[in-house]
UniProtKB/TrEMBL annotation:
The keyword Hydrolase does not apply. It holds the Pfam family adh_short. Keywords: Oxidoreductase. GO terms for molecular function: oxidoreductase activity. This is NAD-P-binding protein. Belongs to the short-chain dehydrogenases/reductases (SDR) family. InterPro entries: NAD(P)-bd_dom_sf (IPR036291), SDR_fam (IPR002347).
Length: 322
């Protein structure tokens, strides 16, 4: 098979077209698929070829808008809407039970949804909101779907789990284990919290492959600098304006390498379907290629990965079984 070269300018649709044979017949779940975000563009590209596309959101009305937009472009797409609030563990359990009740196996799980740049807030489970939404919720969701994911395995195919991380992980000091297990408003820092959760995504991907003993291929990735609906958040806009990434009017500063949303979603689709990654499980991708050298040391440290996994299992009160 001849695969075209990808770059920072490659779109999700171009990647999906290149890997259409890999997507056909597959059942795929993408979290966080609101119109105007990377998850939506990921889902839109995959919908053209997938056997079943499951999209999620915590808001039923916005989820319906996403479904309608996908169906408008791909009328024959098989789309299933799942209400999922990753910041609330009871919602995670309910959503996982709904998926586990479906007859189809799950070939690919894409953990895309994330909360960012918010003030300190505890969830109903007593977790800091960003760590809950970006790490603990996806961790539990993945754990509960493991039987459904393993059911997709065959001698020719290894199921995949993808975690959308960020280059922002390199600007932080890694996972704040105290913030994860004993959140404290007095010690909270918005940027560090977000960056720590993105480190957690990378560590989880590495450890998931390791603990599954090859039964699951897990990957993490950096989508790049993308102007998405996340900037509807005034705090995010203020932070990025202060750092110079946005102009004073809140629009992308052309001095930086901003990607369009379809370009930002391309690396996610690559991580989910590129057959060249079969022998590179646990890899971190950037601009659609393996870029493990870009992982900060604290986010590739096996000891950190193991510690994070064990602590998160204690938080959710369940252990992964493969």
């Amino acid at each position: 098979m001849s695969i075209p070269s990808f770059s920072s300018a490659t779109t999700a649709e171009e990647v999906a077209n290149a890997f259409s044979a890999e997507i056909k017949g597959k059942n795929v779940l993408v979290t966080g698929t609101s119109v105007g975000g990377i998850g939506f563009e990921t889902a839109l590209a995959i919908a053209k070829y997938a056997n079943l596309l499951i999209i999620t959101g915590y808001n039923q009305e916005r989820l319906k808008l996403s479904e309608e937009a996908i169906k408008e472009e791909h009328p024959h797409a098989n789309v299933y809407c799942l209400v999922l609030n990753l910041s609330f563990l009871a919602s995670v359990r309910k959503a996982a039970a709904e998926i586990n009740a479906l007859p189809e196996p799950l070939h690919v799980l894409i953990n895309n949804a994330a909360s960012s740049w918010g003030d300190f807030k505890l969830t109903e489970d007593g977790l800091e909101r960003q760590y809950a939404t970006n790490h603990v919720g996806p961790f539990l969701f993945t754990k509960l779907l493991i039987p459904k994911i393993l059911a997709a395995a065959s001698p020719e195919y290894t199921p995949r789990v993808v975690f959308v991380s960020s280059v922002g992980h390199t600007h932080g000091s890694g996972v704040d284990f105290d913030a994860l297990t004993a959140p404290n408003a007095a010690k909270f820092a918005i940027r560090e919290a977000y960056r720590g959760t993105k480190s957690a995504n990378i560590l989880t991907a590495i450890e998931l492959y390791k603990r599954s003993k090859g039964k699951i291929n897990a990957y993490s990735l950096n989508p790049g600098l993308v102007y998405t609906n996340a900037f509807n958040n005034e705090t995010a806009t203020a932070i990025f304006t202060g750092a110079g990434f946005l102009d004073q009017d809140g629009r992308p500063n052309a001095a930086y390498a901003w990607k369009t949303i379809p370009q930002g979603a391309s690396t996610t689709v690559t991580a989910a379907f590129d057959p060249r990654l079969n022998d590179k499980p646990g890899a971190y991708l950037d601009d659609c290629i393996v870029a493990n050298e870009k992982i900060a040391p604290h986010s590739s440290d096996p000891a950190n990965a193991e510690k994070l996994w064990d602590l998160t299992e204690k938080i959710i009160g369940e252990k992964f079984t493969f």
